[in-house]
Amino acid sequence: MNAIIVDDEKHVRDAIRMLVDWERFGIAKVSEASDGQQAIELIEQERPALIFMDMMMPNMSGSELLEWLSEHSPRSKTIVISGHDDFKLVRHTLKHGGIDYLLKPIDADQLTETVRKAVESWHEDDRKRLETTLRSIEVNRLKPVYWDKLLSNLVVEPSSMAAERESIREEFGGLDQGCPSRLAILSLERIDPGLARKFADNRELLYYSLTNICNEIVRRDNAGYAFRYWNSDKEILIAFWRTVDIEAVEKTVREIEEGIRKALGGKVHFGIGSAQAFPYGLGESYREAKQAIKTSNVMDEDLRIHIGGKQPVRAASARFGDGAEELRLAVRSGNAEQVGRSIGKLLSPLREQKQATIEQLEQWWNEYTVFCSEWLRELSQESQEEEPTIEWTDIARPFELPPLDRSGKLDLTAWESELNRAMLAVSGTLAEKHTKMNNLVHEIGKYIQANYHRDITLQDIANHLYVGREYISRRFKQETGENVSDCIGRIRNEKAKLLLLNPHLRIAQVAEMVGYQDEKYFSKVFKKLTGVTPNEYRKSQSV
Fold this sequence. Notes:
Strand content: 5-15%
Strand order of the largest sheet: 2-1-3-4-5
Protein name: Response regulator
Pfam family, one: GGDEF_2
Shape: elongated
Oligomer: single chain
Number of strands: 10
CATH superfamily of the largest domain: Reverse transcriptase/Diguanylate cyclase domain
Organism: Cohnella soli
InterPro entries: CdaR_GGDEF, CheY-like_superfamily, Homeodomain-like_sf, HTH_AraC, Sig_transdc_resp-reg_receiver, Tscrpt_reg_AraC-type_HTH
Distance between the termini: 96 Å
Largest sheet: 5 strands, parallel
Radius of gyration: 37 Å
CATH class of the largest domain: Alpha Beta
Helix content: 55-70%
Keywords: DNA-binding, Phosphoprotein, Transcription, Transcription regulation
Structural class: alpha/beta
CATH architecture of the largest domain: 2-Layer Sandwich
């Protein structure tokens, strides 16, 4: 919730700021105006839940402001704080919806109690509005769903017009095959983040609210119809058919944009396709509108209506793949500064050119998907190991939900921070994995050194370390370059060389002491590793 303090005396505004516990009442932003005219401009921008105001102000009196509020901001709760104990002013306040009329100097307890009542009243009204909206959705949901599906189908299958021709003519005032038409897309892909959060738990209510606002405008003169596009979960389509010249359509779309901003407090983006014959040209008009959105500059905070057929934005030439290898090495290094530098370098073309498109972000997303999939394969759990892992949703989030600001502009700073977080998480997991692998190889070596004289097998080692045989075999080979069996043979051979220096030990005894029960097999293995038999080795060392 937002609040606005309107008073021409700064010390009064400061007192109200100090006396109200804003956080307690869930008020996130408090703005100030020094007169009624300035207040109107702020109210139109902020749509505040609470308004604190004086009655005697320059440019516009409190009484005039109250009358304006009752007509233009009826949802706001108004608290008058005045130095005039005048019954007429009190009556005027209550007549135009004021919550209370407090006298200066301000009593802190009285102010707190009044704010509490105002906030509760606002929440109760908001709850009732939501209930009313939901009831309205339930009552009217069947008819809109029918037209949503029928018109969505016409975009991809215009031949279905034949079966529905009479219904369409009747509902839309003579609309028939061959009539000029034009499609616009209201894109939820670049929706105001605040609006997205507001409707996060009720996506259906968002669709309903947006299509309602669109239809209030386009259906006034049967100029068109807005419908949820069932072939995409991020688009509402607006079909125009009475007046389809681009200037008129763009003007109507701007009116819709303003209606959404005033009613819901958020900003959205539109794409507009070319004029085509109904219904066979709907698909082409849709593709043009979609392409206009995809090739629009997501770093331009002012442009929100994108018209198909115009010169597309020349996005920064860099691709994610251009810096992927450097990023990979940085992640493997485990150095946070190096990771940050590589990500900064990756995004620098976008910062310098200040241009990027949704189409480009989708390309980056596809390349990033491949990049992350390689990490996941490396970090995936195997049947008998307790391997440290990182979730796909965690590393993919920077591209699945690139951060946008309230105007739908790509927030590069937030995006860079999110990429840093994801890559450092991968880097930490790799470091943990590498440490564990090193420890595992060390433990395998220790076990072999302690048990080389026994008839040990790969399964014996696996049972001792509670790790799968295949995993031990693969990891040991990766880290040391030799098989476990070769390592056992090498260690036994080194021990046998030492024992052969003792002339009092028979070859059979040496073989048994290093884990071989068969003297001939021991001699064969020894010769294979050293190039000479045990006897030949002993003689060469005694010379």
